[in-house]
Design a protein that fits this description.
CATH architecture of the domain at 3-75: Orthogonal Bundle
Structural class: alpha+beta
Shape: elongated
Radius of gyration: 19 Å
CATH superfamily of the domain at 3-75: Winged helix-like DNA-binding domain superfamily/Winged helix DNA-binding domain
CATH class of the domain at 3-75: Mainly Alpha
Number of helices: 5
Oligomer: single chain
Strand content: 5-15%
Order of helices and strands: HHEHHEEH
Helix content: 55-70%
CATH topology of the domain at 3-75: Arc Repressor Mutant, subunit A
Number of strands: 3
Distance between the termini: 52 Å
Amino acid sequence: MLKEVRHDLILKALGDYRRRKILDLIRDRPRTTGELCSHFKNLDRCTVMQHLSVLERADLIIVKRKGSYRWNYINPLPIKEIYDRWICNYSAKTVDLLARLKQEIEK
C-alpha cells in the first residue's frame, strides 16, 4: 500500500472521537468486541463493528479470534508513523528554538 494512502486511512480512523475512545480503551489491555460495545450505550453492535473495521483497515488494531471471542489489540506503529512524519520534526525545531532563546537570555 502506498504510504500516502496508508496515512489517509490512519488519519481518517483517528478523526472520529469514538474510534479514538476505542483505542483508549484497548491501550491498557486487549478487549473483546462485546466489552467495547458495552462502553458505547448509545451505539448498536453493528455501528461499533463498523468503527472497528475502520481501525482494522488503518492497521491501528490487530484482531485475534479465540473461540467465539474477538479480541482487539492496539497497534501503535501507525500512530508512530504519523508522529514521525508530522510531529517529531516540528517538535525538534521548537526545542532548538527554545535552546537558542535560553542562550540569548543568559548572555
